[in-house]
Amino acid sequence: MTRVFSGVKPTGHLTLGNYLGAMRRWAEVDQHAADALFCVVDLHALTVDHDPARVRRLSRQGATLLLASGLDPERCTVFVQSHVDEHARLSYLLECVATDGEMRRMIQYKEKAAREQRRGGSVRLSLLTYPVLMAADILAYGADEVPVGDDQRQHVELARDLAVRFNQRYGHTFVVPRATKPGVAARVMNLQDPASKMGKSDDVGPGIVYLLDEPDVVRRKVMRAVTDSGREVVYDREARPGLANLLEILAACTGGDPELLRGAYTSYGELKRDTAEAVVEMLRPVQQRHKELCADPAYVEGVLREGAERARGMARPTVDAAYRAIGLLPAVAEPAVAEREAAGAGV
Ligand code: TRP
Fold this sequence. Notes:
Layout: E1 3-8, H1 16-33, E2 35-40, H2 52-68, E3 77-80, H3 86-95, H4 100-104, H5 107-118, H6 125-139, E4 145-147, H7 153-170, E5 178-180, H8 215-223, H9 241-254, H10 258-262, H11 268-294, H12 297-326, H13 335-342
Parallel strand pairs: 1-2, 2-3, 4-5
Helix pairs in contact: 2-11, 3-6, 3-12, 6-7, 8-11, 9-11
The structure holds tryptophan.
């Protein structure tokens, strides 16, 4: 069975973009069709200025929302990255395989580092090495597929390169993963700025619908979405990105087709009203389930504990094998290896 791994970073509240672009498909498709792991990648939240209490809160909330969105712990593995030591263990080994130049070429690093420097801040070393940790997340589990947005494809490419390089140098150890598109309605744009995507969890603003926004807040944000000049409702991503975004959100919520849907509207106002209601209705069961799960924190903790145990069981043998392959002395000598080496073989 195909193994799938994906992660959400607890750096901000999860958005409609995260849900339509990724989470919904994980629940509806991936957990049924694959051996899937979904991870709250909390170590990644420490690569930029952070508030410890907030990271903790967002990690718990992220895990709870993954369950609320329909991930079933009987069908897939939901866990928190820092609960499984294998990620950090493997990350170091992969740092010994990756190069400095390779890291500095990562587009996301260049952008984030430049932004940080403009603000006069310092760049954490972990921001540079972050893609290696992400590679470790993926390779530790032997994941075949990694459903990610376009902004993460370069990082998955790096994971592939590191897997191939490690295997060539030290013997076959890792599955070589590939990035997959997370879904159909993969690109929900910011309602106030349809040129940028609504998934940037670290931004705030009236153009971002959060999964836990109250219905009235959702309505207000959608009603105030920027639309393009003109009066006719057309579906044209290039010329009318604001309108196209609304049509796509409506289509994604109702299972329709944006091109067909547009014909039903003669005004922007009507389209906004229906889109707002469709989003509210889609989020209602997720929010309801989230509320129930919040009332039962012991259940969520139990799911995460079991998830981490299962994840550890999967990652451990691969990471141990990588430790041996790269030349680290096992703490407990394995009889077969000890014998061979005593006999002078492979020395
Ligand atoms: N870097 C991803 C993001 O910012 C999150 C992530 C971390 C991830 N590790 C991963 C995604 C492994 C997929 C697989 O969105």
